[in-house]
Amino acid sequence: MTESQMDIPLEPSPKIPQLSADEIESPPLTLATLTWRRFRRHKMAIFGVISLVLIVLYAYGGSFFVSEKYANHNDTKIILQYPSAKHPFGTDTIGRDILARTIYGGQISVLIGLTAAILEVVIGVLFGALSGYFGGLIDALLMRFTEAILTIPTIFLLLVMAKYFGGKIPNITFLGRTYSGSVVVIIVIIGLTSWPYLARIVRAEFLSLKENEFVLAARATGTPTWQIIFRHILPNSIAPIVVAATLGVANAITLEAYISFLGLGVRAPTATWGNLLQGAYSYIDKGAYWLWLFPGLLIVLIVLSINFLGDGLRDALDPRSRTV
Amino acid sequence: MPTILEVTNLKTRFNTPEGIIYAVNGISYHLKEGETLAMVGESGCGKSVSMMSILGLIPIPPGKIVSGSAVYWGKDLLQMSERELTLVRGKEIAMIFQDPMTSLNPVLTVKRQITESLQVHTGMKPQQAVERAGQLLEMVGIPDARRRLTAYPHQFSGGMRQRVMIAMALACNPSVLIADEPTTALDVTIQAQIVELVIRMRQQMSMAMIWITHDLGVVAGLAERVMVMYAGFIVEKASVDDLYEDPRHPYTLALLSALPRADRRREHRLKSIPGAPPNLLTEPKGCPFAPRCELAFERCRIENPALDMVAAGHEIACWVDVRTGESR
């Protein structure tokens, strides 16, 4: 060892700025930032997001290129045409362009998915939060009611309610489009029958979260109960809610397709991917594949994308996963 | 100085499947404006439960405040409705808890948590509340306070989190601060800092304090009067000086002798108190400390002594005079 090496000073050179322990910090890592970082590593989830965005763009952006009148315009001279340059998805049994119908149908399907999921989340969170936080009699009553709804087979309930209310609600005009009243019926029915699943999850979260000391500390500072429930505990339980909401959208879209296919969902002339399939049913073995292929593919694609997205979110929001 | 809190014969029990837990068995004390009272006792002696009972923070289905009153500025807290109590909590009487790691909501910023208290109790506008929150953080010694407002609890160390808790508690200028073992979860150097901070705050805000601890060392530097609790009873009440110089209850004596001292010779074994604390599931009969007391005699096992004045401002609950070993 040379002398110069032995002479290394113990104090750091004043030219190098010394950071105190407090200063060495990264910008606040919010839950959103952490989640996004974990989410990014999920290739399938990213694929899901991208294809979802593309589909939504297709359905909503497409209306700038194709008018609704065109989608409903029928011309019996060009019925059942193979996909061609003029009609990339072919035409249907009364000569309507299927591409245009999938665009407008997509809007309805996505709309139904979103609003039914929102309804489901609002009701489910409300029931779950109140049940989990208060416990006792309130919990018992709310949960028995929830379980009652759960035991009813959803499909049957949907079919019965759809049949009963189907023709009774008038058409509504919203944001420039006219919807058959059956759209509202479907949204309400799906929302009202799928919330119990989320309610139980939220209740479980609340049962465990309310024992945390920060809840006691919040009570000790005089925070009112509703504020403790919705602004303290609820943000801590956001993870399973987000996942359930995402999957709820997929679920709603599938359910709508299911009952529309059976002819009891959204009524004509409003198109949805589901009732496009219904019209295609009798033509499956007659070779007119384009009638069901395109709407079917779109349904599969959107449900798959949402499921991938949901999977990615579930992993990204998992509090036990420590990797960033 | 006027008495602002007067607790009389507070009894709290818990109904559990295994039986009734006799957590607090008739304690009475008073707190004067601006004074610091320490509550000392081992784990499970009922210190925290008694404080939480006063603020209505114990869960009432298993818990039950069987009797007693806690009169704060003329109003009995134990008779107040939940709504009335939320106006008292945080604003008049604030409480901070033991574990700063879990006392703060992990998904809310520190700013949100402090301003919430301000906005609930005062009519402050959000802007004002944020400004005040920044002042409070600065007051409790958080470096770079304004920038740290938007940080999350996990970005603070334990000592800093406890300071944040203190800031939250002091936000609305309460008259009483109840500190439930706030430094037990922190290391000794941080503990010293927190104690120093609290002393400074106490002076600045002329606040009364009840400091719950099982650390007799902390008590010496902080309190004016001390209450020693055992198995849900108060066994000695004295000023700090009297307690350390002239302890009169066998339990207090045993506690003080159990303290390891730097100035004592190394050859002596540490003195511990033989036996174990009583099972709270049994209804207390006789003096609760009798099974472990060196000076116990027949009467101790049958009759529970009530608090009795032995000198000015010094009360004990004991049948024996520890100075002579004979009954009083």
Task: Give a concise summary.
The complex is a heterodimer of chains A (324) and B (328). By secondary structure, chain A is mainly α.
Give the SSE layout:
The complex is a heterodimer of chains A (324) and B (328).
Chain A: H1 3-6, H2 31-40, H3 43-61, H4 68-72, H5 98-134, H6 136-151, H7 154-165, E1 172-174, E2 177-179, H8 181-209, H9 213-220, H10 225-236, H11 238-261, H12 273-280, H13 290-316
Chain B: E1 3-16, E2 19-32, E3 36-40, H1 47-54, E4 63-72, E5 75-76, H2 82-88, E6 93-96, H3 100-103, H4 110-121, H5 126-139, H6 145-148, H7 158-170, E7 176-180, H8 188-205, E8 208-213, H9 216-222, E9 225-230, E10 233-239, H10 240-245, H11 250-258, H12 298-302, E11 308-311, E12 314-316, E13 320-321, E14 326-327
Helix pairs in contact in B: 4-5, 4-7, 5-7, 7-8
Task: Give a structural overview.
The complex is a heterodimer of chains A (324) and B (328). By secondary structure, chain A is an all-alpha fold. Chain A is built from 13 helices and two strands. A two-stranded antiparallel ribbon of chain A has the order 1-2. In chain A, a hairpin with a 2-residue loop joins strand 1 and strand 2 (177-179). In chain A, helix 3 (43-61) crosses helix 5 (98-134), helix 6 (136-151) crosses helix 8 and helix 12 (273-280) packs antiparallel against helix 13 (290-316). The two termini of chain A are 43 Å apart. Chain B has helices spanning 47-54, 82-88, 100-103, 110-121, 126-139, 145-148, 158-170, 188-205, 216-222, 240-245, 250-258, 298-302; strands at 3-16, 19-32, 36-40, 63-72, 75-76, 93-96, 176-180, 208-213, 225-230, 233-239, 308-311, 314-316, 320-321, 326-327. In chain B, helix 4 crosses helix 5 (126-139) and helix 7 (158-170) packs parallel to helix 8 (188-205). In chain B, the strands form three sheets. An eight-stranded mixed sheet of chain B has the order 6-7-8-3-9-10-12-11, with helices on both faces. Chain B is an alpha/beta fold and 328 residues long. Chain B is 33% helix and 26% strand. In chain B, strand 11 (308-311) and strand 12 form a beta hairpin. The radius of gyration of chain B is 21 Å and the shape is globular. Chain B is built from twelve helices and 14 strands. The interface between A and B is medium-sized, with 26 and 37 residues.
